[in-house]
Amino acid sequence: QVQLVESGGGLVQPGGSLTLSCAASGTIFSISGMGWYRQAPGKQRELVARITSGGSTNYADSVKDRFTISRDNAKNTVYLQMNSLKPEDTAVYYCNSDLILAAGDMYYWGKGTLVTVSS
Q1: How far apart (Å, rounded) are the C-alpha atoms in residues 90 and 117?
Q2: How many Cβ atoms are within 10 Å of 89's Cβ, its own excluded?
Q3: Measured between alpha carbons, how far is 32 from 97 in angstroms, rounded to an integer?
Q4: pLDDT, tens digit (0-9, with 9 covering 90-100), for 67-111
Q5: Mean per-residue pLDDT for 44-54?
Q6: Are 32 and 57 in contact (CB under 8 A)?
Q7: 87 — phi, psi (to 5°)?
Q8: Closest by alpha carbon to 94, among 108, 74, 73, 77?
Q9: Contact call for residues 50 and 22 (beta carbons, < 8 A)
Q10: What does the longest C-alpha to C-alpha distance in the chain come to?
């Protein structure tokens, strides 16, 4: 069964760093775009960062120059390195991926991992 599994969330102090990982597993031909979204309680989900199969990246203005998205195609894994974390970064972070399957390309979501930035 195809699935995305996030890991790396936790509690971190303001100004600290954290790295999230998302691994795709299952019968997957290849992976095109992969990205990270986040959602705080009572708020809508927003795009954090995205990376294409060619390595092009896009970031939300709120995280630009603080977060870095990368991918390891051999491991079907995408990473989000988060530096200089702020309390407003607190949210559940979700991995999203455009997976190339037998039936065509389909979007999948991970279950999410909680990041809490607090002193």
Answers
A1: 5
A2: 22
A3: 7
A4: 999 999 999 999 999 999 999 999 999 999 998 888 888 899 999
A5: 96
A6: no
A7: -55, -35
A8: 108
A9: no
A10: 47
